[in-house]
Amino acid sequence: MNKILYVVLLVFFAFGRYVSQYKHSIKPQFNSFTSKVMTGYQGWFTAEGDSAKLGWHRYAKDWVFTNKVSAFDAWPETKEYKKLYKTPIIDSKGNSTFLFSSNDASTLDLHMKWMKDYNIDGAFIQRFFLALNDATRDHQLKVLKNMMKSGRKYKRSVSVMYDISGLRTETDAENVINDWKYLVDQLKITSQNDTPYLFHERKPIVGIIIAGLKDSPSNLQAIKKIIDFFKTDKNYGNCSIVLGVPFYWRTLNNDSTSNILLHDLAKTCNYIMPWSVGRIRYDNLSEVLNIMQEDKKWCDKYKINYLPVIYPGFSWHNAVSSAPLNEIPRNNGELYKKQIKIIEKIKSNNVFAAMFDEINEGTAIFKLSKKPPSTADMRFISYESEISEDYYLQLLQKLSEYLKK
């Protein structure tokens, strides 16, 4: 056989084998992670009577949900939900109260519709390392599938973000890797026709949070194994990595580990996302601006994208009784607006909004009730009467329009 023809055929068959092994779409619907507002999505709320059969998961505190005990501080506005469930809470007027379940496709569809209505580009679906194989696994898989379905419907992107809190060993790392393989092989999240999964330059975006927290240390070598897999595996890899890090990751102090390996990991990733929830307060906004400017310079130096996190306020009194109610108040959106001003000053390309539905810690940016129920033993943060239930969605809509200019 002609040598040139032989070489051509060899290359052709080698390339054919590579394509057949590669698991991700080569023509994704969303192929750019630039000028985007993405939000985090928990999707972990279930209700007594839904198909998850988990009871009041995440509404309950240690699986207890009564007129005196709960684990969430912000009450959602429920007027638009197609299906609601009667709770054990009776308000001060003696009326029954009702809440949604994330297990219902109609709930997720409504949330995706809101994202479209307010020009939020999509959601990072949280997958918790410690829950990959527990009783909630089927529910979380259902949430992911329904979010993908609604993402396709409303043309919103979806990405997986692994919360690796508690990850300690190489075996733990393998559990995350095997979960990704399952999502790719069985759910085909990155290869379905017209998949809404978020790509950047034909590389699926995968989040890993939070590496290097001082108070919740994870094994950085095990995290490195996960990152290496996502970047280099010939079948499941070639991904772009969003690495969540402590807010003081660059200086390796305060909430961060002092281990310089954290910087080495950061340099291998595509996006750095410093976790600002609880760190940004009214009294340190000028310091925050300086920190974010220096963070961005560091990222620019190593050709890494910077992904800042903003949040509206914080409260987890019902879950942690020693914590004050409304610990970091929203003040009619003032804290959020000041953070948005910082985003504009540092000229960030993308923003992560924490979180869409996180009512447990009072960071939810979806529609909240202006008249939450209260009992003698349990209180919820009072949503400001001066603003509308969708005020934070409106602020994100304006930010999205600004980024896209």
Low-confidence stretches: 5-20
CATH 4th-level superfamily: Glycosidases
CATH class: Alpha Beta
How far from one another are the termini? 58 Å
CATH architecture: Alpha-Beta Barrel
Instruction: Specify Rg, calculated over alpha carbons.
Output: 22 Å
- How many strand units? 12
Name the helix and strand elements from N-terminus to C-terminus, one letter apiece: HEEEHEHEHEEHEHEHEEHEH
Q: Let me know the average pLDDT.
A: 93
Protein name: Xylosidase
Your description of this structure?
The longest helix is centred in the N-terminal third of the chain and has 19 residues, at 3-21. The protein has one domain: Glycosidases (TIM Barrel). It is built from nine helices and twelve strands. The chain has helices spanning 3-21, 105-117, 137-154, 170-187, 220-232, 261-267, 285-301, 334-346, 391-404, and strands at 37-41, 85-90, 96-99, 122-128, 157-163, 199-200, 203-209, 240-246, 271-275, 305-306, 309-310, 351-353. It is of the alpha/beta class.
Q: What characteristics describe this protein?
A:
9 helices, alpha/beta, ten-stranded mixed sheet, TIM Barrel, two-stranded antiparallel ribbon, Xylosidase, 405 residues, single chain, 14% strand, globular, 12 strands
Topology, please?
Blueprint: H1 3-21, E1 37-41, E2 85-90, E3 96-99, H2 105-117, E4 122-128, H3 137-154, E5 157-163, H4 170-187, E6 199-200, E7 203-209, H5 220-232, E8 240-246, H6 261-267, E9 271-275, H7 285-301, E10 305-306, E11 309-310, H8 334-346, E12 351-353, H9 391-404
Parallel strand pairs: 1-4, 1-12, 4-5, 5-7, 7-8, 8-9, 9-10, 11-12
Antiparallel strand pairs: 2-3, 6-7
Helix pairs in contact: 2-3, 4-5, 7-8, 8-9
